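As noted in the main text, all predictions were made from sequence alone. Below is one such record, for 1-phosphofructokinase.
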Amino acid sequence: MILTVTPNPSLDRTYEVPSLDRGEVIRATGERMDPGGKGVNVSRAVAAAGQRTVAVLPLGGAPGALVADLLDKQGIEVAPVPVAGATRSNIALAEADGVLTKINAPGPELSEAERELLLETVRRQSGDAAWIACCGSLPRGLAPSWYAELVARTHAAGARIALDTSGPALLEALRERPDVVKPNAEELAGAVGRPLATVGDAVKAAEELRAMGARAVLASLGADGQLLVSDEGAWFGSARVDAVRSNVGAGDSSLAGFLIAGGSGPDALASAVAHGAAAVQLPGSVMPTPGDLDPAAVTVTAEVPADRVLKEPVS
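Prediction:
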């Protein structure tokens, strides 16, 4: 079982539009409503793969009730933490050329009692978890050190934890040595405080995160592929993608694929790349099923192309 923790979940509405023209009436060609938040997406990807998952998340108001209902219909066990504020609603506009515009609401502010209840719920639900995946931004009311506390408690209980967050919350958590951190290129550059122009730059940045405490770094480099750096070595993975439809949740799908495949080594990286590549070819935040995966399109190598210039460099 993979347990996910999403401190700031959302109700996500995705509209497919021909193009985004400011000040004009835009008629959508397609629409979806999904439970959102990075940890929620990991649970959705795990469930789509036919594996058991439990989602821990604070839920409040009508949007929160709808999120729980949508997750239940997808076969995901929900461990809700009732909160006074309403769960946030987000909007994504997906243009025909693959450009995505997102409007994310701030979400409710959690009280001290709600903060403690969230931690206690994770503890109660984590007994038989192979992995705990903690993902996304922190809501108002949770200090940047909250993830660090959760990592410490998780390790004290003997469980493994994967962390997908950024900024001060990531840096604070590194001191507690999370088993895996999963930044994208922008988050990786932000963590080390310098731009990334090549795959080699990303490798050096990942090694710095390991020096700060991360036991392994799974870095998403957008269209360039993914990078895994751990005690076992470094690997680079990429996949052929015929057409990008939406990248919403693609990184979360990658993390799910990585954890499903054991959470370490080149085989897990290959699974992460396959899941991410499949996700970007699906509409909205639809998560891939095993039938959507194309393992033959994936390449993983220990000969990391350090000199390769990133297609999407981070300045």
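The first helix runs from residue 38 to 48. The CA atoms of residues 9 and 185 lie 23 Å apart. These features were considered when defining construct boundaries for the mutagenesis experiments described in Section 2.9.
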